[in-house]
Amino acid sequence: MPQNPIQCNQTGCILYNSYGVWDDRKSCHVATTVYPTTEEELRLAVANANKNKLKVKVVSKFSHTIPKLACPTARNENSVLISTERYNSSIVVDVANLAVTVDAGVGLRPLIDRVEEEGLSLVAATYWEGVSIGGVVSTGAHGSSWWGKGGSIHDHVIGVRLIVPGNASEGFARVLDLKGDDPLLNAAGVSLGVLGVISKVTLSLERGFKRSITLNFTNDNGIEDEFMEHAKKYEFGDIQWYPRHMQRCIEKAAEATKNINAKRIMATSSIAYRKLIANGLKNSEVFTGYPVIGHQGKMQTSGQPEDSVVVDFNYYRADEASTPRLNEDVWEEVEQMAFFKYSGKPHWAKNRKLDFVGVQDKYPNFSKFVGAKNVVDPDNMFSSKWSDEVLLGQAGKVKEDGCALEGQCICSEDRHCSPGNGYFCRRGLVYKEARVCRYGSGSGSGSESRFESESESESG
Ligand SMILES: Cc1cc2nc3c(=O)[nH]c(=O)nc-3n(C[C@H](O)[C@H](O)[C@H](O)COP(=O)(O)OP(=O)(O)OC[C@H]3O[C@@H](n4cnc5c(N)ncnc54)[C@H](O)[C@@H]3O)c2cc1C
């Protein structure tokens, strides 16, 4: 079992995420943690925090989020963490109305199992079942589907009970029962924990159904032209692209020796293995051939019957923030192209800080969301350094030495990369506006980019 993400002693608590390291590698200190088991205890926790002017954040038993969303404050004083670890007992299925109402701390797997017992199916789910309903709804987490209501869990939310600060006559905390066309219901989905505490979530369901899965391993010729058709044609379509695949120990050696071939060989052997085991799919006891057909509850999200590790490789992160990654400029350029040239939207629970630059302009109702936050939480009890940076458009503007190596900023000077290791701030090769840390000699990153001028004026 992984260690509990909250570790407390006499002086206070430290909140970790499930990776053990936050995106900025700094610890999250909190004065105290409470573990409510009922909605009334949740309400009292908010009331107590409000009365005592404490900063508050909710965190689940799992704390899976990479950015520091769940950390109340940079310091531990005047803060409290509300854990939903023990608020996970109620799952009420309304068969007639095809709906289920759950406590926010309930994990995805117990929820799916309960719903399937009633002959119903939850349509959207993350690929990983070790998450809480409160957490996935708060961060816009998703599976994969363009069909019906969509592939994000919040697409299927039809009700939320939200606990927000109140005045003294209201007992310092209020429970809002959001449903129907209440505009706050819309805001409560993907609310990043800044509106208040989600107590209960009601999700719409479908009659139980099965999925038929076939994995097709091909080369990547024309992948950019095919994925739209793929998504339209298959209800739960998926594409996994392996330009290269890495195993960590060998990876470190490859970084140190700048050995690109070692990385390619690792990629090839990994894909061959995945083909052989059909990426873990089984017809009954073992994999005997495609298609693999099963109930939605068994196919929609992964869980292992024994201790196992599922690795969805994104990129290698060095032990030290100051250690550059071989060819990191390639991914940095792709990243900046995706987010700034093509205006991609970041995943609230996963992306690096630079990806949130300008995020306010990507959602037409962003200012309405901030407005709703200001109404229900006028004293910013549920806001934090991270949420202020992102919601107020300050993300990535403070630049420290080496900050671009881990995506805390976009480089505009060599010192934001690692000149000592031979990584300098350079313009993109294809997307010229990008600024990336590239291995090479000499200095001088070239002329200004939108990021450069913007950041330098802000950071001084
Ligand atoms: C192995 C792994 C696989 C993943 N797979 C996917 C995937 O397939 N698709 C995808 O989209 N994402 C995926 N994620 C990301 C994951 O869905 C998000 O990190 C999600 O937020 C995790 O939920 P959690 O219960 O751990 O939330 P936490 O990390 O505990 O909390 C997330 C945020 O929600 C807030 N919050 C939590 N509960 C409440 C509440 N009751 N009220 C108010 N705010 C609350 C917290 O304050 C925090 O801001 C994956 C993550 C991991 C580690």
From TrEMBL:
InterPro entries: ALO_C, FAD-bd_PCMH, FAD-bd_PCMH-like_sf, FAD-bd_PCMH_sub2, FAD-linked_Oxidoreductases_BP, GULLO2-like_C, Oxid_FAD_bind_N. Keywords: Oxidoreductase. Transmembrane segments: none annotated. GO terms for molecular function: D-arabinono-1,4-lactone oxidase activity; FAD binding. The keyword Lipoprotein does not apply. One of its GO terms (cellular component) is membrane. SUPFAM superfamilies: FAD-binding/transporter-associated domain-like. The keyword Ubl conjugation does not apply. Gene3D superfamilies: 3.30.465.10. It comes from the Eukaryota. Pathway: Cofactor biosynthesis; L-ascorbate biosynthesis. Residues 439-460 are annotated as: Disordered. It holds the Pfam family ALO. PROSITE patterns: FAD_PCMH. Residues 26-208 form the FAD-binding PCMH-type domain. Belongs to the oxygen-dependent FAD-linked oxidoreductase family. PANTHER family: GULONOLACTONE OXIDASE (PTHR13878), L-GULONOLACTONE OXIDASE 3 (PTHR13878:SF125). This is L-gulonolactone oxidase 3. It comes from Sesamum angolense.
